[in-house]
Amino acid sequence: MTQASPDKAFLQVDDLHTHFRVRGAGWRSETLRAVNGVSFSIAQGETLGLVGESGCGKSTLGRTLLRLNEPTRGAVYFKGQNLVGMGRGKMRAVRRSIQVVFQDPYASLDPKMTVGEIIAEPLHINNCYRPARVAEMIDCVGLQQDAANRLPTEFSGGQRQRIAIARALALGPELLILDEAVSALDVSIQAQVINLLKQLQKEMGLTYLFISHDLSVVRYISDKVAVMYLGKIVEMGAGEQIFSAPEHPYTQSLLSAVPIADPSYRKQRQRIVLKGDLPNPLDPPSGCAFRTRCFKARPKCAEQEPQLETRATAGHLSADHVSACHFAEPVVPDFMKINTNTQTAAPALRSGAILKA
Amino acid sequence: MSIATADKTAPATHRFAWLRSGLHIIGQSYSMMFAAALLAAVLLLIVLVPLLPGYDPYTQNLAVSLAAPFENIDGRTYILGTDTLGRDLLSRAALAGRVSLLIGLSAVIISLVVGVFLGLVAGFFRGFVESVVMGLADLQLSIPRVLLLIAVAAIVGPSVVNLTVLLGLTSWVVYGRVARAMALSLREREFVLSAVTQGASATWNIRKHLLPNVLPQMLIVGSFELGQIIVFEASLSYLGLGIQPPLPSWGMMISEGQQYLEIDPWIALLPGIAIFMLVTGVQILSQAFTSEGQFDLASPQKGT
């Protein structure tokens, strides 16, 4: 776990919990631990990809960082300031630096406002409206200037997402939370929007928290990747480490599902198919939360909860690579073998080249 | 620069797009055209008749009492005949229409403002505020409105202003409930959430995002309510608790005419037909703006 002191890291999240009270049977109210002790940090200008299946708490985590959900406990240090428990006036000032792009490009734009009004809204809210800034934002997301006078209904999903990005960037934020920002788009449009995001990151020095369930997208955009399962991070490390040498069985099974374009290789691959669904988050399994679906599960997993830590196993690549499994063991995923066209070379060294290609 | 060239699609055309598509729908259906014709006839009666020579709703002339429609007495033609006191029914019907429509529209505006405000505040803030507002609404619904209005009208005295305010304040629940239901869904929408992350206050969100999105639906509810309020005002006037003579009202004209129903049925029939035409016209037309679904919040607006 990164133990940088809070005043040094750009964004540091310490043991963050977000619990919801859910009405259970009868009078009992149960606690849903949507985010259950998550810690990570992001350096300025970096992209952290957060992956996990539906319902694992990744969106709640993003919303908690935005203070749309109140955390139950834990701390979020943004440039040394703890956002948890921060007063309303101070929070208002910080909000300008942390902005969000949501998944649904149809619900994220007010149908009654023109695109110009939508992009101007954050400026009006913060009393810093300048018409030139709106025009600048329209330019920088690659839209035509005459878009300003049109309604969002006249635009396609990809264009709407560009509008949402322009609105998020209008206040000049430093951290952008991309909550499934490209998941609702066509693959070809996804690529355009992701390239736009990469370009904007380079130009403005933005930091991204990229929440997604799409591994290939995450792999393309992320510097660091965290894998979430049932409210907890089960594996985290640099992008190429996670993709070339995943240690946690859950990450391995996710990666075994990455599509392979070449049919001749498709037959050779070994799919790890998980049994069953995500366990009931109101009643998570004892010990390791993943054990009910894990192909490696042994009695120890039910008794003792594995900690997120560096695993001293053979072939280990970096001290930054942490995983929460008693039996962690790096395995090279099939799609990596094919992409590198070799089964023996150290995948980590190769994958960097692929990401650039 | 290019913002100026884009004036071909000025924002104003978007604002009234619903009106244009509404007119389009009217043109496509015979029932809508029929309703528009009914409404136009009533509006012509209300607007044009007081401008014609011979408009005189008050002068009594017992010599011409109970004249039949189109009867010519002393060189003057009473197009719709006269009532017991010899007053010109066409003039009275026109003035009564103005009164009814004025009361109806004012009451709708009052109830819409109150209902939308309470509904949006309840739906946006939830919690205690919501419980109080919805409790008030249930309380209001549990008391029969006619009884309440009769009681209050008897206490404060029947006058046009009192009647309007009373009708307005007792009809907010419909707007309140619809506005709250929509606010509940809108407050979780991403465009509201993103405004929150930009530092927007609750007032900002209610004013800029909730209000514009619920207003079209509220106007539809309002057009529906208008008919009901006019009928309601007519029934109160019929009971003698609404408009007071000599000011005419359609309801009062019916109540005056019912004594002569067997010999001169038009006295009661004419204001009855006028109410029917106005209410039917408004109600059918209000569907022109609902059926197409452009105000349907649930269906995402598709754009290509």
Q: How would you describe what is shown here?
A:
The complex is a heterodimer of chains A (357) and B (304). Chain A is α/β, with parallel strands linked by helices. Helices cover 32% and strands 20% of the residues of chain A. Chain A has helices at 58-65, 88-95, 115-125, 131-140, 157-169, 187-204, 215-221, 239-244, 249-255, 263-266, 299-303, 334-340, 347-356; strands at 11-23, 29-42, 47-51, 73-78, 81-82, 98-101, 175-179, 207-212, 224-229, 232-238, 309-310, 322-323. In chain A, the strands form 2 sheets. Chain A has an 8-stranded mixed sheet, sandwiched between helices. In chain A, helix 4 crosses helix 5. Chain A starts with 10 loop residues before the first strand and ends with a helix. With 304 residues, chain B is an all-alpha fold. In chain B, strand 1 and strand 2 form a beta hairpin. In chain B, helix 5 (89-125) runs parallel beside helix 9, helix 5 packs antiparallel against helix 11 (202-238) and helix 9 packs antiparallel against helix 11 (202-238). Chain B is elongated, with a radius of gyration of 23 Å. Chain B starts with a helix and ends in a 16-residue tail after the last helix. Residues 1-12 and 293-304 of chain B have low confidence and may be disordered. The A-B interface holds A 66, 68, 92, 95-96, 98-100, 102, 104, 106-114, 116, 118, 121-122, 125-126, 135, 144-146, 148-156, 160, 164, 167-168, 171 and B 1-3, 5-7, 9-11, 14, 189-191, 193-200, 204, 208-209, 212-213, 300-304.
Quick description:
Chain A is an alpha/beta fold. Chain A is built from 13 helices and 12 strands.
Question: Top keywords for this entry?
Answer:
heterodimer; A: 357 residues; 8-stranded mixed sheet; 4-stranded antiparallel sheet; 13 helices; globular; disordered C terminus; B: 304 residues; two-stranded antiparallel ribbon; 2% strand
